[in-house]
Amino acid sequence: MTATGAPGEWHTTACILCECNCGLWIQLDGRRLARIRGDEAHPTSAGYACEKPLRLDHYQNGRDRLTSPLRREPDGSYTEIDWDTAVAEITERLTAIRDTHGGESIFFYGGGGQGNHLPIAYGQSLRAALGSRYYSNALAQEKTGEMWVDGRLSGGHSKGDFEHAEVVLFLGKNPWQSHSFPRARPVLREIARDPARTMIVIDPRRSETAELAEFHLQVRPGTDAWCLAAMLGVLVQEDLLDHEFVAVHTRGAEAVSAALAEVPVGDYAARCGVDEDLLRAATRRFATAETAASYEDLGVQQAPNSTLCSYLHKLLWILTGNFGRPGTMYLHSSLTAISGGSGSGKGARLTPVTGARIIGGLIPCNSIADEILTDHPGRLRAMWVDGANPAHSLADSARFGEAMRALELSVVIDVAFTETARQADYVLPAATQYEKWEATFFNFEFPRNVFQLRGPLLEPAPGTLPEPEIYARVLRALGPVDETVLTTLRAAAEEGAAAFESAFFAAAAADPTIMPLAGYVLYETLGPTLPNDARSAAVLWGTAQLCAAANAESVARAGFDGTGFEPGRKLFDAILNRRSGVEFTVDEWSDVWRYVRRPDRRFTVAIDELLTELRGLGDARSTWTTDEFPLVLSAGERRAFTANTIIRDPGWRRRDQEGALRISPQDAQQLGVGSGDRVRVVTETGAAETAVEVSELMQTGHISLPNGLGVDAPDANGRRQRTGVAPNDLTTTRYRDPIAGTPWHKYVPARVEALQ
Ligand SMILES: Nc1nc2c(c(=O)[nH]1)N[C@H]1C(S)=C(S)[C@@H](COP(=O)(O)OP(=O)(O)OC[C@H]3O[C@@H](n4cnc5c(=O)[nH]c(N)nc54)[C@H](O)[C@@H]3O)O[C@H]1N2
Ligand SMILES: Nc1nc2c(c(=O)[nH]1)N[C@H]1C(S)=C(S)[C@@H](COP(=O)(O)OP(=O)(O)OC[C@H]3O[C@@H](n4cnc5c(=O)[nH]c(N)nc54)[C@H](O)[C@@H]3O)O[C@H]1N2
Ligand code: SF4
Ligand SMILES: [Mo]
Question: What DSSP string runs through 620-661?
């Protein structure tokens, strides 16, 4: 569906500012996104939208938009070049690097932020064509610890049914601002209002969510492992476990119970700074509720002991039997694997230079600079970045920038001239997410899971291309697929769905190199035959077929039934046509055990590596502050107008444009500063100046800066201005989780100096 441009017409699309991807209706005024409201027909968001997307035009028409491919010259300036030149030069240099150092020296990063995942599959084709092995994205600086634990426990991805839970627990998570589940604010308000329901929040800060909670366990920063261990200790020592659930649905619980029986609850409550009676009361409330659901996020995932915390958190709901019923936790279907870590990377378990653990196919973000800068024959020589801004979002930006400059080749695809683009050898301008076919693979619902394909509202801005076309141009130059195969498949596609289905799978069976290149092959063959110029959606044909084959029953229940390739065909047609989203699987709650990927369908609860860490907590260190750096800085809090770096123009923020440093009244008094005063924040890695906001929400010793600030964007006169602090000027890759390698963005030892 290309835009008709009829005045007053509401276009169906979605918000791209966080992983909820709420459905939106948008009215255009020329090329401006003029009026924006929640899409009432969207199956999950049902008309809900927060304040952020109302000003999405700052994304669509940002001053920093790219309109031509750029080449970096030896003096660091950029020259505009045409697409043919860009594709030819990049292909030639990629080929030379592959021939000299092997395809595994070409590293891929990104593949979509919060709303643009469709290009991942086309990127996988390019990786396969080059023989690239290593890949990563932002998940490897937040979710890989949790992914590792989920993998050990069940092999699935767990989430909660907050809307129907009697008790909800948020661990290092502030859904009032960060959302992450459908209609977060109305759901939170309903829970707070209902005397029969209870909210528990574990957060050092009195966040907007904590403000609504009955129990706020206001831990000292970085001490959640002691808090969670104490809660689990209470469960076992006060005999609050769901014994029947544990007996029927888990394996290895004896070892876990034995370790928890020894937890000194009072000592650990003191270690995390939470009143023991409050901790016990909150635990009893959680354990005795009919239904409970919980969510862990960055407050623990980017802090000390993060993988251990993920484990202890999941034990809380498993040992109390809060799984597999409405209002509890669940595992869910997926249309496709989100990490995108397959390609030829399958089998790589450790990074090539530093030997760090690869989880979900992703190199730990904290290792990337070392994988490039270390003098080692296996080091990474080239980097391809798409839809990410790692020179801003990863720990220690200065070192990441140094790593990018040390590469033999770096290519960045983005809509804007970002911090990462400004370190790259080539910059390729993409059409925005409102100018092309796009989709998100953040599809985490149960029992009805939803996928939405969005059509373009506008033609691509002059000079830009949708990513699938960019990948196709590079791949055509590389020529990884025999032309006769493409010709045969093109003819079959012209003939119709059935002919194409048999032809494609016959070709894939005859030649095992086809499947890893499926995105490209589908784009070149099926793509041109799709209605409404939906060529970029071609890869979803394969996705739909694989999803239908893997989840036959629940796809059939969603209305896509039949024999052979019929269910996949029906699902693909629905994806192409139902613009507010498609329920692609419909499950029964009893089906949830199908997603426990174990032969006995039980949770494997004993994880030896983490039980050892649990037993060692008594002697483990819980403070990393020093006389030089006496405060704990949370570098990257979600606020009302932050959305990673997706919108670069500070004018989109209605309040707190500069993103002040939040500090407790006690610390402010000691420094002799008040709200609005300017200070310097100093850490081991760097220093930055900022305004202060004295806040009752902060505990003494804890300071907090927002995420997504500190980008350099042109002002009305075209001069680049930096607004606010770039958090990763202050962070380090050195502090990291021992298992997942994830950074401690929420625990950066710091000091604050008052400025005159
Ligand atoms: N408005 C907005 N929403 C967003 C985003 C955005 O940029 N802006 N980004 C999206 C993305 S990518 C993500 S991953 C999610 C993240 O969503 P959240 O994880 O909810 O976001 P944060 O504000 O980073 O951190 C949550 C809480 O952790 C607390 N915290 C800090 N240190 C500790 C600690 O030691 N222990 C505990 N228990 N808590 C601690 C903070 O005080 C904060 O309230 O948000 C998504 N939603
Ligand atoms: N210190 C600190 N660092 C953090 C965090 C923190 O809390 N503290 N949070 C971390 C978290 S949880 C996350 S998820 C990461 C996020 O960091 P990144 O994954 O790097 O993502 P974004 O900042 O969202 O950048 C998305 C990029 O995609 C571009 N873009 C938008 N639309 C399109 C499109 O259609 N095509 C293409 N090709 N590009 C497009 C945007 O211009 C932007 O440059 O940041 C992390 N970094
Ligand atoms: S909750 Fe997230 S996806 Fe929904 S409208 Fe707000 S920013 Fe957009
Ligand atoms: Mo994130």
Answer: S------SSS-EEEEEEE--TT-BTBS---GGG-SS-TT-PE
Q: What is the pLDDT of residues 64-93, one digit of tens each?
A: 999 999 999 999 999 999 999 999 999 999
Percent of all residues in the chain with a pLDDT value above 70, rounded to a whole number: 98
Instruction: Specify the CATH number for the domain of residue 34.
Output: 2.20.25.90
Helix, strand and coil content of the chain, in percent to the nearest 5, comes to 40, 20, 40
Report the C-alpha dihedral over residues 551, 557, 559, 565, rounded to 10 degrees. 30
Condensed to tens digits (0 to 9), the pLDDT of residues 3-15 reads: 445 668 999 999 9
Q: Which residues lie below 8 Å from residue 88, measured CB to CB, with a gap of 6+?
A: 477
> Which residues' Cβ are closer than 6 Å to ligand 3?
15, 17-18, 20-22, 49-50, 52-53, 179
Q: Taking the alpha carbons of 389, 395, 400, 402 in that order, is the dihedral positive or negative?
A: positive
What are the pocket residues of ligand 2 if the criterion is a CB atom closer than 6 Å to any ligand atom? 113, 116, 138, 141-142, 298, 386-390, 393, 413-416, 418, 430, 432-433, 467, 635-636, 644-646, 707, 727-728, 731, 745
98: its two tokens: 């592959």
**What is the domain-level CATH number for residue 650?**
2.40.40.20
At residue 307 the predicted structure's pLDDT band, cuts being 50, 70 and 90, is very high
Nearest CA to ligand 3 atom 4: 22
pLDDT > 90: percent of the chain? 96
| Domain, as residue range, for 662 | 618-754
Q: What is the 297 CA–ligand 1 centroid distance (Å)? A: 6
